[in-house]
Amino acid sequence: xxxxxxxxxxxxxxxxxxxxxxxxxxxxxxxxxxxxxxxxxxxxxxxxxxxxxxxxxxxxxxxxxxxxxxxxxxxxxxxxxxxxxxxxxxxxxxxxxxxxxxxxxxxxxxxxxxxxxxxxxxxxxxxxxxxxxxxxxxxxxxxxxxxxxxxxxxxxxxxxxxxxxxxxxxxxxxxxxxxxxxxxxxxxxxxxxxxxxxxxxxxxxxxxxxxxxxxxxxxxxxxxxxxxxxxxxxxxxxxxxxxxxxxxxxxxxxxxxxxxxx
Length: 262
Hints:
Elements: E1 6-11, H1 15-25, E2 30-36, E3 49-52, H2 57-68, E4 72-75, H3 82-95, E5 99-102, E6 115-118, H4 121-131, E7 137-142, E8 157-163, E9 176-180, H5 187-196, E10 201-205, H6 214-222, E11 225-229, E12 239-240, H7 243-252
Parallel strand pairs: 1-2, 1-4, 2-3, 4-5, 5-12, 6-11, 7-8, 7-10, 8-9, 10-11
Helix pairs in contact: 1-7, 2-3, 5-6
């Protein structure tokens, strides 16, 4: 009797998650399911089956793994989706399902970069407030739309807010301009954007990857300060830097058994 394809769950939303779904979709031994958080209004559809929305914490995710007979989980969420990482670790431990973290390498400052690294947005706001003592600042906020509110208290800063989707509502900034755009961005475009808006500081997260790193190269060329938020702590989990390595990990697990059959 032919065996049914083994379900593999990708916790997705990143470029690497889409690349992995594309690779696994061609393997007849597997059935790939991608779960998207639903933070963007019109998410790109991955290869294979997909779903949108949360699971209801680690208990809800564990129940989903059992119900779907998931054989392996790849956490390919954004580097700053820390809660999902901890939930995945707890759920996979509870039902004894192999878990891999697929995460692009972090950006690393070079000798010509002017980075100020912070662990949270409160420290970023305090740093900007201190810089305002030398005069008004012009800041590119390259953040998610749900992370803008802490910066609205800085009345002396003119913000250029770049977001994929419009914030709803936009926090009450004293001086702000909204730019809706989705990467990747070229170095030439980023250089021109920073010059045209006379940006002196960029605030961003250490997301890593090539889609949005051109702003860092442009900042380096123009001598612009970057307030860089460090990545949050994640559970100790096997990690792959790219989709190809993740595929190899799935193959090397042998024939993983669905949740609930161990």
